[in-house]
Amino acid sequence: MVILLGTVMAGILQSSLQTTLTVPMLIAPSLLAQTPVQSFEFGGYHFYLKRDDLLHPQFSGNKARKFRYFLEQELPDIQLLVGYGSAQANSLYSMATLAALKGWHLQFYVDHLPQWLQQSPVGNYQAALALGADIIAVGGKEKYGITVEQYLRESILPTLSAALYVPEGGRCQAAEYGVRQLAQEIHEWAINQKIAGLKLFLPSGTGTTALYLSKYFYENKIDIEVLTCAVVGATTICANNLQCCVMMNFAIRGSSVPLKISFWQTLS
Predict the structure, then answer these.
(1) In what order do the strands lie in the sheet with 45-51?
(2) In what order do the strands lie in the sheet with 134-137?
(3) Residues 6 or more apart from 182 whose CB is under 8 A from it?
(4) Is the pLDDT assigned to residue 47 strictly greater than 60?
(5) pTM of the predicted model, to two decimals?
């Protein structure tokens, strides 16, 4: 089994470097690839770690893969990047880095900001502030009776121009571009290692990375199974996100794709 490292760890590693990396380094997109794979034993089982946490000090993990499309495209008419999520989301820091690299401004909407965090910023929240991000609390459910996403779509996005909107966690079709390259790397590695019937595990928030990995393996008739578990929210939420992505990417093409994704239940 290969475990994809970066989805959770990226934010921790980035935050530990935030005091010295407040200004983004220039990133050559060609370097955001071919991360090493490490072998280890645990509980009598053999595992491999795909070290996507080593992609780049500030732009790593699955968010770097999902946002790669935006990094590589010129997009000359864009001045504002808009997103939403939690105040400590990995996507917040990754989007702040992306915005700084592209010369854009980031507006990131959250449901609430704890007073203690505003008074003593830490983690991804602090790192994103240092990169010039505007992190805006809207009190979605309490104040407006709707979610932050609904509030953005109904009240904010219609008023903006020259803006690029990225749904929570990079849950959009553009994410396929970078995740597809990740799938190719894993497949090439499995061929070189002469491993058949590989199982690939990664934790999921929205499930977008798991979806596009599985889509690539299915379309190319590659015998790699994607295993995932919901680490943010319930498994049903992640499954619903996957279903929305499936409808957005496949149903409109008139095709039916039996994705090979298995959910592992988390322990309470």
Answers:
(1) 37-42, 45-51, 2-5, 198-204, 224-230, 261-263
(2) 134-137, 105-110, 80-85, 163-165
(3) 4, 52, 62, 65, 209, 213
(4) yes
(5) 0.81
